[in-house]
Amino acid sequence: MAQTAGLGRKYLKAFVSGFFVAVPVTVTVLDRLAYVARVEGASMQPSLNPEGALSSDVVLLNRWSVRNYEVRRGDIVSVVSPKNPKQKIIKRVIALEGDFIKTLGYKNRYVRVPDGHLWLEGDHHGHSFDSNTFGPVSLGLLHGRASHIIWPPNRWQRIRPCVPPDRRPLLNWGGSTEDDVDDDDNKK
Amino acid sequence: MSQRLFSKVLGFIGYTVQYGCIAHCTFEYIGEFVMCSGPSMEPTITDHDVVFSERLSRHLYRIEKGDIVIAKSPFDPNMNICKRVIGLEGDKVCTSGPSDTFKTHTFVPRGHVWLEGDNLQNSTDSRCYGPVPYGLIQGRVCLKLWPPHSVGVLNESPNAGRILRTE
Lengths: 188, 167
Known about the structure:
- The structure holds two protein chains of two kinds.
- By secondary structure, chain A is of the alpha+beta class.
- Chain A has a single domain, classed as Umud Fragment, subunit A, CATH 2.10.109.10.
- Chain A has three helices and ten strands, in the order αβββββββαβββα.
- Chain A has helices at 2-33, 131-134, 176-187; strands at residues 34-38, 58-62, 76-80, 88-95, 100-102, 110-112, 117-121, 137-138, 142-151, 157-158.
- In chain A, strands 1, 2, 3, 4, 7, 8, 9 and 10 form an eight-stranded antiparallel β-sheet that branches. Chain A has a two-stranded antiparallel sheet with strand order 5-6.
- In chain B, a hairpin with a 2-residue loop joins strand 3 (68-73) and strand 4.
- In chain B, the strands form two sheets. Chain B has a seven-stranded antiparallel β-sheet with strand order 1-2-9-3-4-7-8.
- By secondary structure, chain B is of the alpha+beta class.
- Chain B has helices at residues 2-29, 56-59, 126-129; strands at 31-35, 50-54, 68-73, 76-87, 92-94, 105-107, 112-116, 132-133, 137-146.
- Chain B has a single domain (31-162), classed as Umud Fragment, subunit A.
- Chains A and B meet through helix 1 of A and helix 1 and strand 4 of B.
- Chain B: Keywords: Hydrolase, Membrane, Mitochondrion, Mitochondrion inner membrane, Protease.
């Protein structure tokens, strides 16, 4: 009897110590390295959720690569919604700080993106709640960069940055971003 | 010999990762110590005061009017600002300074807060850059720890009239 009690205590101890390892490590990995999220809604069609409500994509959000708030034009990023802090939204970066952009139905026809802000748009114009509604988004709200589609399995792929050709910024569009992408391709 | 060294190194790395992760969770979900600089919160918080900011109420969405919060600056995510919450979403706030003859008011949009420093003459805050998204709030300042003669809870706002109480 005493032996079983001792055994039980041993298991309890192992469970508690394992708990104190597993929970902080998991939380830290989800906060700092990578996060997995299901995409809901039609705002990013056709890049994400091409079949609409039938099957929703699951994406891997790389949180390590945005730790210094470095994103490129064309990246798909998740941000905390400026209108509802309990919700996260996933959109494409169209313009970085300092870019001039022609808006689609925002209160100003042309906008210079302020310092420390991003201009985000969904790929499905007109069905997306994006910067054309709420304006430029502060970089501090950045949550992660979508790097891979991991579910469904037949759509498993890396997400490459690409800006829709008609949505390029009017000024400040240096060749640098395109060159970076080309370099990446050459290395692979 | 080399095997023992290897296992020792592995154990050391394991402990480092474990304690690093525990530290991350503590700072991220419970609270952290912050040193404030700048004049914008005088006389409540002066330059080089050390305060404790708890993060639980931010995660539970329990930030209230009159709380002092630490938030990321909307224009530079690497910089933090320490201000008092004057209005939550839907509140009416006064956008003009205390010495202005004409009072102007505005409403705080959804998902945003209105932040102002206690030192109204010398503070860059929502009066200059408008409402701030709630997601930028990092924590609520609840205790002052340094200098030793003013340890304890923080004072109420000296300009309490700016917080409009609506029932």
